[in-house]
Every structure is written in structure tokens, then in C-alpha cells.
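Review form for a predicted model. The reviewer records the input and the model, then writes brief findings.
Reviewer: anonymous (R2)
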Amino acid sequence: MSNLPELTDFLRTPDDCFKDLPDFAYTPHYTQVGGLRVAHIDEGPRDAPVVLLMHGEPTWSFLYRKMIPVLLAAGFRVVAPDLVGFGRSDKPARPSDYSYANHVHWMNAWLAATDLRRITLFCQDWGSLIGLRMVVDAPQRFERIVLANGGLPTGTSAIPFAFKVWRAFARFSPWFPIGRIVKAGCAQGLTPQEIAAYDAPFPTRRHRIAARLFPGFVPTRPDDPERENNERAWEFFKRWDKPFLTLFSNRDPVTRGGHRIWHQLVPGAQGQPHAVTRGAGHFLQEDKGAEVAQAIVAFIQR
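Model under review:
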């Protein structure tokens, strides 16, 4: 926590932007972290096992609206934060305040402040790049992990062409329609109301700084500043013997097949009911949300 920046220059999306969200009437909760307000939803019994849902780029906790009811019906406590720069969380105003390392620090501080325990982590996209590092830094809080369409890149492996195109688009395109970008990552599409809900946190260009920058923070070169930390995390997971499940999609051009290395290297992944989520794109929470949630319930209840 000593490296946590203390920021005073940030944007806060007006509450009016979040009116009439389809199927997402949950009350937000707020935690102060490094001078910023981090938002999360927290539903279900306070004393129940926690399912922590970590979103990625360029989404927010709205992504989990199809999974939350299934998890609540099974009796779990469901917590879904918005990463700094996304959703209802504050958005630093300067690009230099954003980095992979800072986001890990912010979410580690948030986890310590909320004091969540008995956690089953579900993580996807950047939710995995950050969430898996949170496990490394506080393993005593986590009982099991479910990984979908994500990983821990170190910058030493080949980068899919689809990701190179996405990274270039995020950096150079003058047009950056976040709701439509999310729709493009779904096999089943989105309604106009759902597209608007993904646009809601980002009413101006300045609110979209994080969404623009995140693709460039993925380690893709051997000299990446987070290579060492992610390599250290891989060594940690090579010793992880708690349950570890993968639920990757078959129609994600970036992460498809990325589950195999986890099966090979993580002791806790042995003998688990891993599944390939068919008919789902990158955002499997949209395409097959209830099905994914049911798989998580069955995994916890085994």
C-alpha cells in the first residue's frame, strides 16, 4: 500500500447518467482509496461466502447483471466493484495517473478496506490481470478462483492479431463508442438500452481516459514494467492448490485457448470441471451470463 498514489484531480460521473439502467437497480456503495471514491455493489447475506466479480475493459459492474440473480438465489453474497476510471468509480483526470501497477494498488487497498474474506473470485479480461494479482497479494482472503477470457501476460509470448488491432484502435481512433465496442465483443449482440448503459459512465471524452489507455497497459514486450510482477505471480500460481476453474469462450479471438496453460501449471486446476462456454464471445457474461453463474454455483457447492 506504500506505493498507492493520493490523487485530488479526478472526474466523477454524475448520478443522473445512471438513471433507468436495464435490470441493474442495485444500490452502489463507496470506499475511499488513495483520494478516490471506488464504487461497488454488495448484495446478499453479509455472512455468506463472497463471490467477487471483477470486470475488465471497457465495461463496468453492469456487465454482471445476468449473473448476479443466479448467485444470489444460491445464497451467496455478491460483490462487484467498478475499477478506477470505470463505472461509478472516480476517474483520474491525468493520463499519467493510470498504470497497471496503480490499478493493482488501488484494488488491493479497496479489498483491505472492505475486508472481504471467503472469496470466490470470478475474473475476466482486465479483471483477471488485476484480480489474479490481488490473490497473490492477499491469498488468505480467497478460497477459489474462476478465470474466464483472461490471464496474466508477461510480454514474452506472441500477441494475437485481434488484440493488436484493438490496441491500435483504442490509441488512434477519433471515434471511441464504448457501448458499441462492448456490443462488438458479444456473440449475441446488445439492445440499444444496454449499449446506452455501457456508455453511461463516460459522458465526455475526459471520462474515457482509462478506457482508451488500458489496452496499452497489457504487457506485450519483454521490457514491460510489470513483467517481473506477473512472472512472480505465475510462480505463485504454480503452487496454488485451492480450487481453480476455467470457463473460457470458444468465440473470443483474443483469449480462445488460453485456459490450457492454467490446466498444465496450476495444481488446483487438476480434476476440476473446466468448460468451454460455447456460443459466447469475449464478454461471455453478456452472451451466457446465467449459464456461467450456474457453473460458478456448482463449482462452489462441489
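Findings: Strands lie at 10-11, 28-33, 36-43, 50-54, 77-81, 91-92, 119-124, 142-148, 244-246.
Further findings: The CA atoms of residues 101 and 255 lie 22 Å apart.
Recommendation: see findings above.
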